[in-house]
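pasting for the record
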Amino acid sequence: MGISLISAARYLPKGSLTNFDLEKMVETSDEWIQQRTGLISRTIAEDETVADMAIKAGVKCLENVTPEIKNKIKVLILTTVSYLQVVPHVAAKIVEPLGLNKDILAYDLNAGCTSFIYALNTIERFLIKPGDYALIVSSDKLSDYTDYTDRGTCILLGDGAAATLWEYSQETDYFSISQTITNPEVLCREGKYVQMNGAEIFKFAVSTLPGLIEEICTKGNVAIEDVDLFLLHQANARIIESVARKLKTDDEKFPVRYQNIGNTSSPSIPILMTQLIDENKLQNAKNIVLAGFGAGLSLGIVLLKGNGQYVVK
């Protein structure tokens, strides 16, 4: 037994910061950035907050859902790593704007860039019978924490949000692996800005992900070649390409779609899912691996094994 995706939507702010803009702010170049990250530009929320973006993504996700399904949503998890206000939590601020029942269990979850995967692991335990539904809304405004004089971080980070609605499913199977390694110095915020050792994050991801992906496939009795899509946190195109090479798998199964968005942290995987829905690629995928990694260090892998009916339009 597992979970299936019912609806998904993204919200990307209209603000944009291109590589050429960054050339005027820090010692870098469009060519240098593209070679090392694959990025061309990143979306920037100017006056919008984490909650604003979350509401816009959530409303769009729920607009085609029947009132009956909407009333059965029992859990709302808001994933974010960049909420400036400590209390109240973002989830509490969006329940009413999204038209959800006030008796819903709603809270925030922060596990760095792995937050969406950890939220999936959480709702999978809540969705226990037919008719159970859960909503994950992921929203991050990393520009609030970005030092635009630090080229190691400012070239990567963008803002955005995505919402995904899930239901209990008897036709799919769910497998997961999670790890938490105490190594806060690699990626942290001390004071106002995010600080990151990019080389260490790269090494951590590339050395760890291939083995864990093989492990989750073994756990689910699915051959690597029978996985239709590997949806990795959109942190750096070179990381994703390196993992694909280590697994000797077609690059097309490892989509990279963040070139004009940037690393948005917790929304990056659900944003990618909405892009693949637009391309009509997610709907027919039978087996999907999702992988998040980031601050902590945290890491999570999920295998959605099923019949190809992941998205109901």
